[in-house]
Design goal:
The protein is an alpha/beta fold and 155 residues long. 32% of the residues lie in helices and 15% in strands. The chain has helices at 16-29, 45-50, 67-73, 112-118, 137-152, and strands at residues 7-11, 32-36, 61-64, 79-82, 100-103, 123-124. Strands 3-2-1-5-4-6 form a six-stranded parallel sheet. β2, α2 (45-50) and β3 form a beta-alpha-beta unit. It is globular, with a radius of gyration of 15 Å. It starts with 6 loop residues before the first strand and ends with a helix.
């Protein structure tokens, strides 16, 4: 496969429909999807078919057994963590083609060791008004990918 526009990274996703929607976004935008285990659902061929993900075979997807194996295998030139624990809006980042866009699980976000690994300088947020706890994971991924595409003119 061609080099991806971005690498979308899901750390321990919990909701199959979110992962499916994110997969569709990855496929539609030329991104690679990285799924880091453990995950809260089955991803074998039968489960994917049952979920109606008829495009899954077109997706550039890589599964990793753990955070450590992901870090060991991937060449992480630029890794951006999207989190509610940041005050830096995503449009202040300077995205480059091939960057890794990391998102935590719907319930727990990412553990402290991942925050420490990424560092404060690479934590981004999607600003929200009022007291919204967070955005839906698939919505957040889509917003981040398209902001990156806007910045890099990869459309």
């Amino acid at each position: 496969m061609a080099e991806p526009v971005f690498n979308i990274v899901l750390l321990s996703p919990q909701i199959p429909n979110n992962t499916g929607n994110i997969g569709r976004t990855a496929m539609a935008t030329g991104c690679r999807l990285h799924i880091i285990h453990p995950i809260a659902f089955d991803m074998d061929e039968k489960a994917v078919r049952r979920a109606g993900l008829d495009y899954w075979h077109l997706l550039d997807v890589v599964e990793h057994a753990s955070w450590e194996s992901f870090v060991e295998k991937e060449k992480l030139d630029t890794l951006w963590l999207f989190t509610t624990k940041s005050s830096v809006p995503l449009w202040e980042a300077q995205f480059k083609v091939g960057d890794y866009l990391l998102f935590g699980s719907e319930q727990h976000g990412v553990p402290q060791k991942v925050h420490d690994f990424v560092g404060e300088h690479a934590r981004l947020t999607l600003p929200m008004v009022n007291d919204a706890r967070s955005l839906n994971l698939a919505t957040a991924v889509c917003a981040a990918v398209y902001e990156g595409i806007r910045q890099t003119s990869c459309s």
